[in-house]
Amino acid sequence: MTDKVESSSYGKSASPPRRPGAGARLKSFLKRWWWLLLIVFICSVLIVVLPLVFVGIPRIAQRDVRNSRLEIRSMVLTDPTRDSFHLRLEELLHSDSNYHPILDAFNASLFLEDTMPDIKPFALIEVPRIRSEDVTPITIDQSVGIADLDQFTRYTKLVMNSEEYRLAIRGSTGLHQKGLRKINVDYNEVVTLKGLNKLRGFNVTEFSILLQPGPDGANMVGKALIPNPSVMTLEMGNVTMNLFVEGDLIGTSLLPDLTLRPGDNIVDMRSTTNQSLVLQKLSKFTDGMVPIDIVGNSSILNGEHLTYYEEALKSNTVSIKLNVGRAVSGLFGNNGS
Q1: Residue 248 and residue 293: Cα distance in Å, rounded?
Q2: How far apart are the C-alpha atoms of 88 and 233, rounded to whole Å?
Q3: What DSSP letter does each residue of 124-164 carry, written as one string?
Q4: Does 308 score more than 50 pLDDT?
Q5: Could you report the per-residue pLDDT of 100-124, keeping only the tens digit for each?
Q6: For the chain, does the N or the C end have fewer beta carbons within 10 angstroms?
Q7: In this structure, what DSSP letter does residue 334 have?
């Protein structure tokens, strides 16, 4: 019997399965874990965007408001009463920001810097809604109640006695920039303004002595020059001033219906003086130039004393020399009233 040798695969090793490529593995991973990757992506975006929206952008907005500059071009105070006045402000808001948002109308406090941090506003004004540009004109025209008479009196005295003074303004408003939610910002500004500088340059430009006093008792009439270097217009009513020579009261002067406007003001002056005392004083000054000290006394409009103006007038003394000798010499040559 012939043995047949049969071939057999027994003892041969099988080939291992081929591993999927990197692309296939990535595809499988994304197919299985896409939802987790989406969550991670959203969280990453929120971590970046939310602080920008809720912290970064409001900080930028507040910075731009803080860096803006307010210029007051005109300040007109009319219709004053003992507890109110009408205010018209012409202002320019300067901004270097690349953004031009809308600012909501808001109430602003006017106060003096030295009352900070617990400010004491003397008035509240309403600032209108504006769109901020590089230069934005703002007009405020409204009746204003005096919130604190003592502080407003301090303000008027500061204006009277200062070459320059600082006015503080504070408020809060909403800022609207296209594509963003409303942003709350604080407005804090201190503006430097020119004051009345103690009425330096005040002078009596012309006057005459009356032999017969007028119906109001005035026995000396003339014109007074009152410089106003500020941007303020002040309606003050009938202003009276006390006149002193060498510390002795020689009479009073009335400036009727006084309104101070920016620049030089030429106003009527009617004085009631003790003429015998004036002549007695005149004898001491051989050149006829009598030194007179002028101190404010009262400010009255519609029968009301405007105490905030009165205190400012009383806080300042103006000294001039008046050529009384020439007026006496021409007494009989000029007797008009």
Answers
A1: 10
A2: 10
A3: EEEEPPEE--SEEEEEEEEEEEBS-HHHHHHHHHHHHH-SE
A4: yes
A5: 888 999 999 999 999 999 999 999 9
A6: N
A7: -
| Residue carrying the six token digits 């969280």 | 43
The CA-based diameter of the chain, rounded to the nearest angstrom, is 181
Helix (H, G, I), strand (E, B) or coil at 328: helix
Say which DSSP state 114 is in: G
State the Cα–Cα distance between residues 110 and 121, nearest whole angstrom: 5
- Angle (nearest 5°) at CA 187 between 145 and 231: 55
* Long-range contacts of 249-253, Cβ-Cβ distance < 8 Å, separation of 24 or more: 250/274, 250/277, 250/278, 250/281, 250/292, 251/220, 251/278, 252/297, 253/224, 253/294
Is 225:203 a contact under the CB 8 Å cutoff?
yes
Kind plus residue range of the DSSP H or E element containing 194:
strand 183-194
Which pTM does this prediction carry?
A: 0.81
CA 98 to the chain's CA centroid:
25
Look at the chain and count its residues. 337
**Residue 309: closest CA among 78, 71, 32, 147:** 78
Distance from C-alpha of 104 to C-alpha of 107, rounded to nearest angstrom? 10
Q: Take residue 292 and report the two structure tokens written for it.
A: 């007179």
With beta carbons less than 8 A apart as the criterion, state whether 106 and 74 touch.
Answer: no
Which pLDDT value is given to residue 27?
65
For tokens 């600082």, what's the residue? 166
Q: Which residues pair with 187 in a beta bridge?
A: 171
What's at 259, amino acid-wise? T
